[in-house]
């Protein structure tokens, strides 16, 4: 279990950058929509995909992604953005599932 959690740390750091630093690039509503609906989900999917390719499937990563997004709601958005926590958890789950399909045990 400890090995899986230490393998997850770089992915969690990438998700933290995705959720907490990318919203600072939104200067207007159009940029915010582009970030929230395209760039951030692609980064979350890519993170899940890379984790799945390297470590196989783990339900902990999508759950951690959803939990990691919750404080970002109160920092960058309003309460109506809570649905994005579920959305990003699902996106990471899809990336992790696809990546784990191509995972080879070493």
What does this structure look like?
With 106 residues, this protein is an all-alpha fold. The chain has one domain (2-101). 78% of the residues lie in helices and 0% in strands. It is built from four helices and no strands. The protein has helices spanning 2-21, 29-55, 60-76, 83-101. The radius of gyration is 14 Å and the shape is elongated.
Domain tally = 1
The level of helicity is over 70%
Number of extended strands: 0
Q: What is the molecular shape?
A: elongated
Judged by helices, strands and strand pairing, the structural class is mainly alpha
Strand proportion: under 5%
Mean pLDDT: 91
The residue ranges in which pLDDT falls below 50 over 5 or more consecutive positions are none
As a whole number of angstroms, the C-alpha radius of gyration is 14 Å
Q: Can you write the helix and strand succession as a string?
A: HHHH
The major β-sheet equals:
none
